Amino acid sequence: MTVMKTVHVIGAGPAGLMAAERLAQAGLKVVVHEAMPSPARKFLMAGRGGLNLTHSEGLEGFVGRYGEAAGTVAGWLERFSPTHLVGWAEGLGQATFTGSSGRVFPRAMKASPLLRAWLGRLNALGVEVRTRSRCAGPGDGGWAFETPEGERVETPDAVVLALGGASWPRLGSDGGWRGWLEAAGVAVAPFRPSNVGFDVAWSEVFADRFAGEPLKPVALTHGERTVRGEAMVTRYGLEGGAVYALSAGLRDAIEQDGTAVLTVDLRPDLSVEALAGRLAKPRGKDSATNWLRKVAGLSPAAVGLLREIPGELPAGADKLARRIKAVRLTLTGVQGLARAISSAGGVRLDQVDEGLMLTALPGVFVAGEMLDWEAPTGGYLLQASMASGVVAAEGVLRWLETRQRSTP
Q1: How far apart are CA 163 and CA 185, in angstroms?
Q2: Dihedrals phi, psi of 281, to nearest 5 degrees
């Protein structure tokens, strides 16, 4: 008689829940542990402004979004692609659509209907979800969990770790697992904020007047990379989708040099020549702000940004056009992990095999933001997290099968 194998998944975010689903579909007994009072809190928070599931970008460009980890993530996406993710969501009754930016959303926009359907599927598959069950790490007697009833020790046949990175710690991903994994011989890269805002030394007048105002559309350039989109003025500096897309390079530059230069094109749809032609029109009795709004299409916040550059605005149309097309800002710092959307760092990719099993801990697999990779917002984070959950689940199944074959 064959005894049903038991796998414990630690962490009820998208990566962990996806691993649990695949394992349960394969006929294993699955228990999911979640330290928080309810599952997938960060997933729900991410869906407040519209749940961005994935992106419709071609696969070559898609994979390139993962930077140094692109080669590894490409393998994950072969197992669970954007097309697979869309089909999965629609299989849960959540129709999707692709926005003008190429981002893919559920028609309901929110995360809660999808999560309810997902948890319903897991329940039907027999998955047990234990909330308020915080993992304290492995020991000689098994895996220890802190629960309201006291410590509980479990001895599953395999474990999937999906505890998240270190961003948004109030939602559960606090990186507290690093200590016990390093003690077990696993190399962990330091956590760093990703998809995060940056500090700019605004004047008090500018910060008071324009904090919370968008700059759009803009094109932001750092080094050789240019990204079009939207930025948001904050009291401390800048944030927003276009900023996040450049955040890895900006963060690295600040860590190395102390500052980073970000160039802002306030009218990306106009050439310098076309803009200069508009600026050659007489100003008349208009204030500078009204005149620039009328002839150059600049918002008050954009005009305020121009005035943040020391010195008077250039007098000539050509020089003013060039200023509008290239406002150079010095970024002086990076907002911390508590304000970051995601984190870089985590379990180094050379610590796991192709099935995401830790070489230092056979039978223990890692998925999601626990691993050392990063990506911009736009659907890339959720896509890779869920794909890694699929890969980890498949790794568990292969490992258990291999062990069963080798057992007399």
Answers
A1: 18
A2: -70, 145
- Give pLDDT tens digits for 346-389: 999 999 999 999 999 999 999 999 999 999 999 999 999 999 99
> Do strands 225-233 and 327-334 pair parallel, antiparallel, or not at all (unpaired)?
unpaired
Classify the phi-psi angles of 237: left when phi > 0, otherwise alpha if psi is within -120 to 50, otherwise beta: left
Categorize the per-residue pLDDT at 2 as very low, low, confident or very high, splitting at 50, 70 and 90: low
Residues 252 and 2: their CA atoms lie apart, in Å, by: 53
DSSP of 4-61: PPEEEEE--SHHHHHHHHHHHHTT-EEEEEESSSSS-HHHHHHGGG----EE-S-HHH
Structure tokens at 286: 């208009």
Q: Which of 77-91, 246-260, 287-301, 385-399 has the lowest mean pLDDT?
A: 287-301
Q: Distance from CA of residue 407 to its chain's centroid?
A: 41
What is the set of domains in the chain, with CATH numbers? Answer: 6-193+339-406 (3.50.50.60), 198-334 (no CATH)
pLDDT value, residue 1? 41
Q: Indicate the DSSP class of residue 104.
A: E
Which among 381, 383, 366, 401 has a CA at the least distance from the CA of 159?
Answer: 366
Q: Could you tell me if 62 and 82 are in contact, meaning their C-beta atoms sit under 8 angstroms apart?
A: yes
Per-residue pLDDT, 344: 97
